[in-house]
Amino acid sequence: MQVKVATTRGFCFGVEDAIELAEQAIDDHGAGNIIALGPVIHNKTVVNKLEQEGLNQAGELETIPEGKSVLIRSHGASPETLQRAKERKLNVVDATCVLVKRAQNVVKQLHEEGYKIVMIGDANHPEVRGVIAYAPEVIVIDKGDDLDTAIPYKERLGIVAQTTHAPEHVASVIAEIAKRPFRELKIVNTLCLEVTRRQEAAVALCKEVDVMFVLGGYHSANTRELARLCIEEGMSTYHLETWDDFKPDMVDGKTIAGVTAGASTPESVIQDFVAKLEAL
């Protein structure tokens, strides 16, 4: 089978930095002595590899024994979490993506400037939960939400977005906000250019193939967004984690397959998938 691969795909610099920090922390503190507060990135292959190397994982900060080292994952953490870690005398290794950290600082600054803050994103995503903790009462909205009840009347609004959202999606929500009464609107672009480039490459590839495969963790927001964009292009699209999830009937009647991957997907997973797909 002929396979075409997106020109921009897979690991972004934020993910690479997080993995490098995790591996360095294992070397510095010893296997079993560094504990990640949740999965470092949303990719089981990478997380399992780090666990085999000696990185433990905890869901709650309070379950980490005092004196241990805690790794803050790429999605970041709230100021309260960082303060509790300090109080518990935990050594903090911060692997927060620099763009997520910038979004945190932007939210804090907008609050200090007197804006009512609106964040466009998934309220349940760990990045969003961490970012909105940098100001009180941040409103989180997304497409389909009732903006008439969510957006405060005649306020000075400061708007940011989840870093992995598509620019077109964010623009459409901002356009809806702009139709409502407000005294001032300040928009700060917090989108990740690396993610945007992957989205553009995936959409372009849809025009050249019969079926698209988007590789990445099922909990990865940027991978899900890639799949959504391909589906919006009218392309038959499958979001898979690895080749193990592939089924032959996915390519029935297809001759050219496109492959792309989310920002937390290793190149080895992509190359393995491509080689096996070409061999069909």
Protein model, in words:
- With 280 residues, the protein is α/β, with parallel strands linked by helices.
- It folds into 3 domains: 2-10 and 193-278, 4-hydroxy-3-methylbut-2-enyl diphosphate reductase, catalytic domain (Cobalt-precorrin-4 Transmethylase, domain 1, 3-Layer(aba) Sandwich), CATH 3.40.1010; 13-96, Rossmann fold; 99-187, Cobalt-precorrin-4 Transmethylase, domain 1.
- It is 40% helix and 19% strand.
- It has 10 helices and 12 strands.
- The strands form 3 sheets. It has a 4-stranded parallel sheet with strand order 1-12-10-11, with helices on both faces. Strands 3-2-4-5 form a 4-stranded parallel sheet, sandwiched between helices.
- Strand 2 (34-37), helix 2 and strand 3 (55-58) form a beta-alpha-beta unit.
- Helix 4 packs parallel to helix 5 and helix 8 runs parallel beside helix 9.
- The N and C termini lie close together (6 Å).
- The model has no long low-confidence stretch (mean pLDDT 94).
What's the structural blueprint in terms of helices and strands?
Elements: E1 2-5, H1 13-29, E2 34-37, H2 44-53, E3 55-58, E4 69-72, H3 79-87, E5 91-94, H4 98-112, E6 116-120, H5 126-132, E7 139-141, H6 147-150, E8 156-161, H7 167-178, E9 184-187, H8 193-206, E10 211-215, H9 221-232, E11 237-240, E12 256-261, H10 267-278
Helix pairs in contact: 4-5, 8-9
